[in-house]
Design a protein that fits this description.
Blueprint lengths: L2 E8 L6 E7 L4 H12 L7 E6 L5 E6 L5 H4 L3 E2 L15 E6 L5 E11 L10 E6 L22 H68 L1
Parallel strand pairs: 4-5
Antiparallel strand pairs: 1-2, 1-7, 2-8, 3-4, 3-6, 6-7
Length: 221
Amino acid sequence: MAIYRFRVTFEDYDDVYRDIEVRSNQTFEDLHHAIQSAIGFDASKPASFYMSNDNWTKGREITSRELSEEQAAQIASLRKARLCDYIADPHQKIYYLFDFSSKWAFHTELTKISKTEEPGADYPRCIKSAGEAPKQYGINQAGPLPVPEDFDPDVDDILLDEDEDEPNDIESETDVATEDEAKTIGDIQNESDMEDSESDDEFETADGDMMEEDGQDNDEF
């Protein structure tokens, strides 16, 4: 049985590729799962292969997407289509589109055809890997908001504590001010009482002196 070797390259990451070998009588679905396994993607999303020319122009489609009866008569299924029935060029190019919503695109090129299998080998298989594949959901997946490197989580706690303490500080200052005012009023009242007392003493002394003077005058008369 002939063995096809394909080099599968990300369209947007041309330095990331996988070399995959598959039997000629295996299906496009086998190749699909081999590619997804090699790059670490979830293969459950729909995919299509397009037989292409040297310019990667899309031609005949082989797909896993759901088709109407009319479409099914014209478009082959990944599960049923064998590779050998579509390979016409020893350097055949196949445009591979995976997950239509995210539009992961790959260039799949036939690089070698071996007439015999390697004893004990399990096909399809990945025989060479170059570059780290991007994350399948890295672009669309929502995640926590980034935290600045100089962010200090204790700052908010400190500010919160200060805000909580502030009313108490104000209340304390108010209490102190009230007590000081009370003392001041009391002192003023005491001073006023002392002044009134001194004034009474002065009046009493003055009245006494006047009475004595009046007595002396009367004696003279």
